[in-house]
């Protein structure tokens, strides 16, 4: 899995597979899922990320403001990021939720009124 943050585009892209992208689907305003030839989820793009999460460059904690910490390679290129455990767990939960949505995207839907009748 590879995550790319584009500050200029105010977007995050999470690549789950190296498979070529065949199809894309907007599942919610600003959230796009990418699929391969076999309809497997290969990527997730989240637009307007600054509106969806706290500042991408600073996090408020009980101890004050904490700046992001990056892991860099020998060329000085960012290759990883260090996240607080609670933020990592929240990201994992969000990714799981998106994967469930992707898996169920071909299921038929019912109207809310019909669901209420069934309950």
Notes on the structure:
This protein is α+β, with helices and mostly antiparallel strands and 119 residues long. The protein has one domain. 25% of the residues lie in helices and 38% in strands. The chain is built from three helices and nine strands; from the N terminus they run βββββαββββαα. A five-stranded antiparallel β-sheet has the order 1-2-5-4-3, covered by helices on one side. The protein has a two-stranded antiparallel sheet with strand order 6-7. A hairpin with a 5-residue loop joins strand 8 and strand 9. The longest helix is centred in the C-terminal third of the chain and has 19 residues, at 85-103. 8% of the residues are buried. The model is unreliable at 56-64 (pLDDT under 50).
How would you sum up this structure in a few lines?
The protein is of the alpha+beta class.
**Could you estimate the helical fraction of the residues in percent?**
25-40%
Number of helices: 3
Mean pLDDT metric? 81
Count of discrete structural domains: 1
Q: What distance separates the N and C termini? A: 40 Å
Beta-strand level of the residues, as a percent range? 35-45%
Order of helices and strands: EEEEEHEEEEHH
Q: Tell me, briefly, the overall form.
A: globular
Unreliable segments of 5+ consecutive residues: 56-64
Radius of gyration: 18 Å
Q: What's the count of strands? A: 9
Largest sheet: 5 strands, antiparallel
Derived from helix and strand composition plus strand pairing, the structural class reads: alpha+beta
